[in-house]
Amino acid sequence: MGSFSIWHWLIVLLAVVLIFGTKKLRSVGSDLGGAVKGFKDGMKSDPPGQLNDRG
């Protein structure tokens, strides 16, 4: 009952590619990347109401 080796992960990856196909995985990866980018951009921008409330 050891940890998973690289061969276990390669077999799992191969099974996922065979089940879903590369086109579907590419679109899921693209959607996930866009969501992460949008989240990062949202975290960088400050809400306008908090900039001048120190009065």
UniProtKB/TrEMBL annotation:
Gene from which the chain derives: tatA
Alphabetized Gene3D superfamilies for the sequence: 1.20.5.3310
GO biological process, one term: protein transport by the Tat complex
Single GO MF annotation: protein transmembrane transporter activity
Keyword Kinase: no
Subunit note: The Tat system comprises two distinct complexes: a TatABC complex, containing multiple copies of TatA, TatB and TatC subunits, and a separate TatA complex, containing only TatA subunits. Substrates initially bind to the TatABC complex, which probably triggers association of the separate TatA complex to form the active translocon.
HAMAP family associated with the record: TatA_E
The protein's name: Sec-independent protein translocase protein TatA
Transmembrane segments: 6-22
Family according to the record: Belongs to the TatA/E family.
Membrane topology: Single-pass membrane protein
Location in the cell: Cell inner membrane; Cell membrane
PANTHER family (alphabetical): SEC-INDEPENDENT PROTEIN TRANSLOCASE PROTEIN TATA (PTHR42982)
GO cellular component, one term: TAT protein transport complex
Organism of provenance: Sideroxydans lithotrophicus (strain ES-1)
Matching NCBIfam families: PRK02958.1, tatAE
UniProtKB keywords: Cell inner membrane, Cell membrane, Membrane, Protein transport, Translocation, Transmembrane, Transmembrane helix, Transport
Function (record text): Part of the twin-arginine translocation (Tat) system that transports large folded proteins containing a characteristic twin-arginine motif in their signal peptide across membranes. TatA could form the protein-conducting channel of the Tat system.
